[in-house]
């Protein structure tokens, strides 16, 4: 059986996850970890790990250029679990050197960077898969099949909420965490563009016109807030948008809560309603009385990301599941959110609590759990609920959106 050989850039944080997933799939016979890029800092901190990989026959490279120039004879795919602001440049460079690429989500912080990746694919004939693992989920893909079959009728509204608390340790994990701008590069490292990005992307994907397409948006209105006093970007957001097919989209997220609520999505059509939760349990109630239930069939979507890349490289399938092209509507949505909000509103200190507990420094926005629940049920933004710290924003048209520049 022909194998697909992978090289991972990095060994820490999510790079460690990429290595873990590839190693898990080596037993299936189609994938092999062939190389790892270890920077100078990583080498100092991970000398024992480096020795371990060398014993396993994994080639070690000490710079990205070293990897690109010297791995072409035995590496097929380079994976880039790297900082958001490096994505576009590193992916394009890899494709120009002749490699296929697996790029972590989000593909880039701006739509113009994504467009450059799309153009590089055309110029080089190489592919760039995007690590939106939930698009690879069996439950999400089955749900989309049902939507495309018309069983739910016309999709009128799709809504999602998620409450994932994040503490100081999360924002100190690297130099760019919690930043909007880093070293002159746009990052937008808030919940909608990083930790909870999958669930905004899921909604755009589910109402796309074909199996591997996402929907473009026509308008967006959004609010961005910051409760954590030591970060730059938002940690609490709400979005309402309208797709070009008329479907309304609602999204509510926060990192400034006391409790955790995993992503929960409701899809409302003219012929029924679907409910999906983070466990991937999906329940559909059709107006004719039929009930449909399914889950992910025990398939880990993280592993599917790598399987699909391997299958595409081998020519077993013709299309990737997650691409720069079908990720573009997500990036446009995020850029439009920032343009609509215009600025991130800091929450007044009398509405938040910051304290140490169980070796973590926590920030909690008062009653945000209840606020998100109410906004989700009523399908409104926080300012529509007359929350004292909330500020109304403007709806903007993003149908022909081609450039995002917060510096202008």
TrEMBL record:
<dbReference type="InterPro" id="IPR036291">
    <property type="entry name" value="NAD(P)-bd_dom_sf"/>
</dbReference>
<feature type="domain" description="GFO/IDH/MocA-like oxidoreductase">
    <location>
        <begin position="140"/>
        <end position="274"/>
    </location>
</feature>
<dbReference type="GO" id="GO:0000166">
    <property type="term" value="F:nucleotide binding"/>
</dbReference>
<protein>
    <submittedName>
        <fullName>Uncharacterized protein</fullName>
    </submittedName>
</protein>
<feature type="domain" description="Gfo/Idh/MocA-like oxidoreductase N-terminal">
    <location>
        <begin position="6"/>
        <end position="132"/>
    </location>
</feature>
<dbReference type="InterPro" id="IPR000683">
    <property type="entry name" value="Gfo/Idh/MocA-like_OxRdtase_N"/>
</dbReference>
<dbReference type="InterPro" id="IPR052515">
    <property type="entry name" value="Gfo/Idh/MocA_Oxidoreductase"/>
</dbReference>
<dbReference type="InterPro" id="IPR055170">
    <property type="entry name" value="GFO_IDH_MocA-like_dom"/>
</dbReference>
<dbReference type="Pfam" id="PF22725">
    <property type="entry name" value="GFO_IDH_MocA_C3"/>
</dbReference>
<dbReference type="Pfam" id="PF01408">
    <property type="entry name" value="GFO_IDH_MocA"/>
</dbReference>
